């Protein structure tokens, strides 16, 4: 008797690297009770049916942080397998337009410089985003 392979869910996630005028990047801390709770991440969320990556990022940053952004150039696309989930992270640079960033869907937010970002614990897939940001600069 052969067993059927277990299908791991796959999510496409739009991710925004949001810069301010001081060349800092906005990161948010995941709520402790959720998956990968307490880790820091770049804001974003799951792509909805019929939505472009750019629309997803714009919507998610408004819903999660209360800010309006202009979604800019693609920084990197990452395929990453966790034990429970496979993700495709579609990462774009974002330019702040309006609103006061607030932790609506996360535990806290911080503006950090590239020099400071290494002090924060991120999920494994985000390490590639940080490397891409440093290469871009």
TrEMBL record:
This is 8-oxo-dGTP diphosphatase. Its cofactor is Mg(2+). Belongs to the Nudix hydrolase family. Residues 8-137 form the Nudix hydrolase domain. It holds the Pfam family NUDIX_4. It catalyses: 8-oxo-dGTP + H2O = 8-oxo-dGMP + diphosphate + H(+). It comes from Scytonema millei VB511283. The keyword Hydrolase applies. One of its GO terms (biological process) is DNA repair. SUPFAM superfamilies: Nudix (SSF55811). GO terms for molecular function: 8-oxo-7,8-dihydrodeoxyguanosine triphosphate pyrophosphatase activity; 8-oxo-7,8-dihydroguanosine triphosphate pyrophosphatase activity; 8-oxo-dGDP phosphatase activity; 8-oxo-GDP phosphatase activity; metal ion binding. The gene is mutT. Keywords: DNA damage, DNA repair, DNA replication, Hydrolase, Magnesium, Metal-binding, Mutator protein. InterPro entries: Mutator_MutT, MutT-like, MutY_C, Nudix_hydrolase, NUDIX_hydrolase-like_dom_sf, NUDIX_hydrolase_CS, NUDIX_hydrolase_dom. It is an enzyme of class 3 (hydrolase). Its EC number is 3.6.1.55. 8-oxo-dGTP binds at residues 30, 41-44, 126. Mg(2+) binds at residues 44, 64. NCBIfam families: mutt (TIGR00586).
């Amino acid at each position: 008797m052969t067993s059927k392979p277990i299908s791991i869910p796959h999510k496409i996630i739009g991710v925004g690297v949001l810069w301010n005028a001081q060349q800092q990047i906005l990161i948010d801390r995941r709520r402790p009770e959720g998956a990968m709770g307490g880790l820091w991440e770049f804001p974003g969320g799951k792509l909805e049916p019929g939505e472009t990556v750019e629309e997803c990022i714009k919507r998610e940053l408004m819903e999660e942080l209360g800010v309006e952004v202009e979604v800019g150039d693609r920084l990197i696309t990452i395929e990453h397998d966790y034990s429970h989930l496979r993700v495709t992270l579609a990462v774009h640079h974002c330019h702040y337009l309006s609103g006061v960033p607030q932790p609506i869907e996360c535990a806290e937010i911080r503006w950090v410089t590239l020099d400071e970002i290494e002090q924060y614990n991120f999920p494994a897939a985000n390490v590639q985003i940080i490397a891409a940001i440093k290469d871009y600069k």
